[in-house]
Give the backbone structure.
Amino acid sequence: MLKKKFRLSASLSLRQAKTVDSALFKIRFLKNNLSFNRFAFVVSKRVDKKAVVRNKIKRILRECVQKNIDDLNTGYDILFLAKSGLKEKEPEIISESIINTLRASNLLKQ
C-alpha cells in the first residue's frame, strides 16, 4: 500500500496533463511543484465487471509502482488508467510495461 502522501486525491483534475499510451494502460501526468510524486489508479467496469478483478489489477499496479518509486523523477501527479487487456497479463509483464512507458515519458531517472 502506498503511503497517504503518495496518493492522488480524487478531486484533482488532470485534464491538461500529458498522456502516454501503452497497450495495457494509459498514463496521464502533470507537474505538481512538490518534492514527491502522487499516484492514482483507475480500473473501470469496462475492464471487468467484477470488483475482485478490478481491485486485483489495482494492487498489481500499485506494487509495480512502489517497487520503482525511487527510480522516478520527483514532482509529478501520475494517473494510471487500465485497459481491458490488462487482466490477462502476468504481473512481471505489467511491471515491464510500466517501466518502459515511464521511460518513454521521461518520468524515469536515467
Summary: Strands lie at 18-21, 25-31, 38-42, 76-82. The first strand starts at residue 18 and ends at 21. The two ends are 26 Å apart (CA to CA).
